[in-house]
Amino acid sequence: MKEIKQHIVFLTPGFAKSEVDSTTIPALQVFLKSMRNALPEAKLTLLAFQFPFTRKKYNWHGIEIIPLDGRNKKFQKLLIWRKARRTLQKLHKKEKIDTIHSFWIGECSRVGQKFAKKHKVNHVVTVMGQDASIKNSYAKNLMNSNVKMVTLSENHQAKLTKTYNLNSTIIPWHLDVSEFPPLTESTIDILGVGSLNTIKNYVDFIDVISAVAKTHKNLKVTIIGDGSMRSELETKIKNLQLENTISLLGELPRTEVLKKMAQAKILLHTSMYESFGFVFLEALYSGMQLVSHNVGLAKASENWHVGTDKIDLIEACKILLLEKNRQKKRVILSTETETINAYLSLYHA
Question: Which part of the chain is the Glycosyl transferase family domain (predicted)?
């Protein structure tokens, strides 16, 4: 008798364009590699609606990637959805789909839910970011359905409940600890990692550094990331005469980011909203002290200083910089086994 393999199809707006691309949604990449290892006999397929900008299928660590090449063009939306539905039909006919796993409450969850309802297929939706807090029409077909909703943290779950009154299971992301370099002596006092946009709130980051620099001379601060606010932030740094204090490195490969983390003492994160904060996991495992607002999976601890305003963040940074004898140690908040087993239970429910 022929063995029946499980077939899981993942739907996401964007994905890594190759195995070399380490910067496109790192949390999703780590998760899918682990899922591939956990289900060696299963067929895993991924449809990328908008990015990468190609129509050529490719293999990514044993997962078939089917790019739909939407290129984030609004006039192509309906065409891409139709293409996604047809692709799902072909896949289902060739090798029956058991589970569809959609990321974000958006076009992927809409297409996934319609297909799942029509073909009585298991459907899991992972809420990824502001889709938990900003209402959109894509959530309508998830209401009163059998879809299994997943959020990433307690804060994230609370936002989803408040916005849509949708129940969800909390499943945090995990790290691939093999990616991390050894811990080293701190040559960077304060590090910022994230896109240079309004959500990450680097305007406040620079204000905090300006205040801290007044009492901590020769402060070494590095920001990794790029985005629409770069020129504005460069001007602010110049106006506050912080050019010799803050270095803007732009976007770096993930391996380089982790090297910088291993060399840094404090991760300052001034974002006012996070669904999870993958960078928090990375920083804690890199032996860093965290200073942030109560966002994502934030929880005050020996290694995590959670502030309610800018003044709290300034004071936390000042206190930590005065500590000379604190030894770096790796901290793990969630494990690969916990994350993968939690999802497998939803796939098989």
Answer: 185-298
